[in-house]
């Protein structure tokens, strides 16, 4: 386990339990109390948790973890989802991607796809994104044309938000929008934690002919603060496990195609 992976697990454990002792974390992760103490101090310095006497407490259920602390969560499921989403993309397509761990994985698969290589002077694929990490990672791929929206970056997610994003997106027509979400339910549709990111995702969906939500099973049946769109505006859901009965019924009623990644 790398230091980053251990910090991730420590932070997840604290977030899930709310309040923990150093002994609790040491036992759960099979590491020494001294290592836990150093990790908790480091995470407290980064304002990701609150240090207490003999342990730590979470900042709150609505707190959004920075992107780097989400990278290894549901990794196998996200990889499978990304491959399935890439299968929906044809050579020459224009694809809108919002930010997040799942869409970042989609970008990696698209960037390494031989099927989408450029033909002559035509790019193999055009990616329009508000996520700085996705743009940076794909900038070295010769077959990918990258278009980055304007906007102001959020340090939590590397996403650009604000009115400049919408001004950029209004000039485009996309074949496909691939959206990562934090929650998906029948009542509230697709949701995310930050209202600015919800608005950007909504704008990306508005200028796309097909809207695909890429979400692992932990997001299904969950609602977060800011609404992106109702289920009726989603064409396809790509996930890693079959939805629960109530979510599945809502998706079917809304006409959403469900693809379970193998």
Word description of this protein:
With 262 residues, this protein is α/β, with parallel strands linked by helices. The protein folds into two domains: 3-61, Orthogonal Bundle (Arc Repressor Mutant, subunit A), CATH 1.10.10.10; 75-260, Rossmann fold. It has helices at residues 3-17, 22-29, 33-45, 75-86, 101-111, 132-138, 163-169, 195-206, 245-253; strands at 19-21, 50-52, 55-57, 94-97, 125-129, 144-148, 152-153, 160-161, 176-180, 183-185, 189-192, 211-214, 226-229, 236-239, 257-260. The strands form four sheets. A seven-stranded parallel sheet has the order 6-5-4-9-12-14-15, with helices on both faces. Strands 1-3-2 form a three-stranded antiparallel sheet. Strand 7 and strand 8 form a beta hairpin. Helix 1 (3-17) crosses helix 3 (33-45), helix 4 (75-86) crosses helix 5 and helix 5 (101-111) runs parallel beside helix 6 (132-138). It is globular, with a radius of gyration of 19 Å. The two termini are 27 Å apart.
Number of helices: 9
- Looking at the structure, what is the overall shape? globular
> Low-confidence stretches at least 5 residues in length (pLDDT < 50)?
none
- Beta strand %: 15-25%
What's the pLDDT, averaged over the residues?
90
Provide the spatial order of strands within the biggest beta sheet.
6-5-4-9-12-14-15
Order of helices and strands: HEHHEEHEHEHEEEHEEEHEEEHE
Q: Note the main sheet.
A: 7 strands, parallel
CATH-derived topology of the largest domain: Rossmann fold
Which class best fits the helix and strand makeup?
A: alpha/beta
What is the count of structural domains? 2
Give the C-alpha Rg.
Answer: 19 Å
- Specify the CATH class of the largest domain: Alpha Beta
The first-to-last residue Cα distance is: 27 Å
């Amino acid at each position: 386990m790398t230091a980053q992976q251990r910090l991730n697990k420590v932070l997840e454990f604290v977030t899930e339990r709310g309040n923990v002792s150093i002994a609790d974390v040491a036992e759960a992760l099979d590491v020494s109390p001294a290592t836990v103490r150093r990790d908790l101090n480091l995470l407290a310095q980064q304002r990701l948790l609150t240090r207490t006497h003999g342990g730590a407490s979470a900042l709150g259920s609505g707190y959004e973890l920075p992107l780097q602390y989400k990278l290894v969560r549901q990794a196998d499921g996200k990889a499978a989802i990304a491959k399935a989403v890439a299968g929906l993309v044809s050579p020459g397509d224009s694809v809108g991607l919002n930010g997040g761990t799942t869409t970042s994985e989609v970008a990696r698969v698209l960037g390494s796809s031989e099927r989408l290589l450029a033909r002559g002077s035509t790019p193999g694929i055009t990616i329009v994104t508000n996520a700085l990490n996705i743009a940076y990672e794909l900038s070295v791929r010769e077959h990918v044309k990258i278009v980055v929206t304007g906007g102001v970056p959020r340090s939590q997610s590397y996403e650009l938000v604000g009115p400049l994003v919408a001004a950029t997106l209004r000039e485009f027509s996309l074949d496909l929008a691939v959206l990562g979400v934090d929650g998906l339910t029948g009542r509230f549709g697709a949701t995310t934690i930050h209202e600015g990111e919800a608005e950007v995702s909504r704008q990306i969906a508005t200028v796309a002919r097909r809207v695909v939500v890429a979400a692992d099973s932990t997001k299904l049946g969950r609602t977060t603060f800011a609404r992106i769109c109702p289920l009726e505006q989603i064409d396809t859901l790509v996930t890693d496990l079959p939805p629960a009965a109530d979510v599945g019924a809502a998706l079917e009623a809304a006409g959403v195609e469900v693809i379970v990644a193998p």
